[in-house]
Amino acid sequence: MASAVQQLTGAYSADRAHSSFQVSLRHMGVGSFRTGFDDVEARLESTGDGYRLVGRARADSIAITEPPEFRAHVVESGEFLDAGNHPYLSFESAKLQLHDDGSVELEGTLTIKGLERPIHATGTYRPPIEDIYGNQRAAIDLVSRIDRRDWEMNYQGRLPNGDDVLSWDVDISVHLELVADAA
């Protein structure tokens, strides 16, 4: 039986309608604030010595709509995304391992606000199958946790008990449904 790693060759692009990039963090000490980015692109290529994954999300495509003042603060403020000066969040893998058991390990660089920092992610992989249109389709799901201060997203408030309004830790979840590029 061929392994998942042997089955993925060539280049794959994210099916934007079926891929997502979401973030969540603790809010007010009790809840979780969750949002995502609507404009996400990614590309996975098999190379002679492994795989390369690159992707990006438009910062102003964050799915926060209300209230307008909150959206403006998150999108434009230097305390958060500073989209006017840094319109994209981007990622490039340094090492991507697709294991035979369907697990994934990834090391790479995440760039937010022009600041490049290393990131480690784990997840799962589903090898290519033929879809109903005759395309080869695969999927990768990844999770990671970052400290937002590493990217100078430093907004913070204090609750009456002294706890933080927002956690410094941000959980990232990426789902990529990938379609093989036409030969």
Kindly describe this structure.
- This protein has a single domain (4-176), classed as Beta Barrel (Lipocalin).
- The protein contains two helices and ten strands; from the N terminus they run H-E-E-E-E-E-H-E-E-E-E-E.
- It has helices spanning 4-7, 68-76, and strands at 11-14, 20-27, 31-37, 40-47, 50-58, 88-98, 103-112, 115-130, 136-147, 169-180.
- 7% of the residues lie in helices and 53% in strands.
- The chain is elongated, with a radius of gyration of 18 Å.
- An eight-stranded antiparallel beta barrel has the order 1-4-5-6-7-8-9-10.
- Strand 4 (40-47) and strand 5 (50-58) form a beta hairpin.
- It starts with a helix and ends with a strand.
- The model has no long low-confidence stretch (mean pLDDT 92).
- It has 183 residues and is mostly beta strands.
Q: Main attributes?
A:
mainly beta; Lipocalin
Describe the secondary structure blueprint for this structure:
Blueprint: H1 4-7, E1 11-14, E2 20-27, E3 31-37, E4 40-47, E5 50-58, H2 68-76, E6 88-98, E7 103-112, E8 115-130, E9 136-147, E10 169-180
Antiparallel strand pairs: 1-4, 1-10, 2-3, 2-10, 4-5, 5-6, 6-7, 7-8, 8-9, 9-10
